[in-house]
Amino acid sequence: MLDRKNPQNYAVIDLTKNVLVNTAIPKANHAALRAGFAGYPPNPHWTTSKYLAWKTGSKWRKALANGEMTVRSQDGMLVPLNNKQDSPKNKLARGKYAQFYRNFRQSAETLAAKLGR
């Protein structure tokens, strides 16, 4: 999803209260990344770099929902599924977080509907 860069440029950020991610996206674009992960629409006034951060967050949200990514139970880090051992304990954790994500998504949609977005 992102080109590999110098590891010193990576930062751990909160996508949600319980989900962290390690990314090289600049700090100025973290809000757009979170908005994409939360399922909000892009802002038409954003710069290209903010839109691309939003798009990355949106892709991560879809990958998590499709089972291509998972949230590690040890530290809450969002990681591609192929970086994780598929032990029965880890499969159980994926199911737990998949349910968490569905509940989170429903809550976000309900809130957006109440706010008229």
Structural key phrases:
alpha+beta, 117 residues, two-stranded antiparallel sheet, single chain
What does this structure look like?
The structure is a single chain. The protein has 117 residues and is of the alpha+beta class. The chain has one domain (7-115). Helix content is 48%, strand content 12%. The chain has helices spanning 30-38, 48-66, 88-115, and strands at 11-14, 20-23, 69-71, 78-80. A two-stranded antiparallel sheet has the order 1-2. Strands 3-4 form a two-stranded antiparallel sheet. The longest helix has 28 residues, at 88-115. The mean pLDDT is 81.
In whole angstroms, the N-to-C terminal distance is: 28 Å
Into which percentage range does the β-strand content fall? 5-15%
Strand order of the largest sheet: 1-2
Helix/strand-derived class? Answer: alpha+beta
**Total beta strand runs:** 4
| Largest beta-sheet characterization | 2 strands, antiparallel
What's the overall geometry? globular
In a few lines, what is going on in this structure?
The strands form 2 sheets. The protein has a two-stranded antiparallel ribbon. It has a two-stranded antiparallel sheet with strand order 3-4. The chain is of the alpha+beta class and 117 residues long.
